[in-house]
Amino acid sequence: xxxxTILSKQSIMPSQPTCNFHPSxxxxxxxxxxxxxxxxxxxxxxxxxxxxxxxxxSSLSQTLKYFYPLAGRIxxxxxxxxxxxxxxxxxxxxxxxxxxxxxxxxxxxxxxEFDGIGRFSDFPAELHQVKPSYTELSxxxxxxxxxx
Length: 148
Hints:
Elements: E1 3-12, E2 24-26, H1 29-33, E3 43-45, H2 52-64, E4 73-76, E5 82-85, E6 91-99, H3 103-108, E7 134-140, E8 145-147
């Protein structure tokens, strides 16, 4: 069974302050009515470079200046409607080490075998603390990694 150890946690901010002309973006009616779920998207890579983590952080920071709502927080108005507060608070970036399983066995096995990868330990229960996006870099033995 895989064991996931968190090595570091940090918030990645946009590379430059974002515009203030949209400080808040309302969620659509469909988003308002949908249950709060996260969609996990996993990307697996076999190549490892020493500066992979720094490149991912830098790329994410550059991307957030264009997709600035992802660096905000989901809030509830007094009327029960949800919106994204575009406040540049950043995207959570976790770096983890995975032991007890190889990347190859995860690629070959059913999805339940990699439970724990991409599971953020402090996922908030309170709606006002929810972040629109999370990112994790998981390193495997033999220097393989995945990102999501």
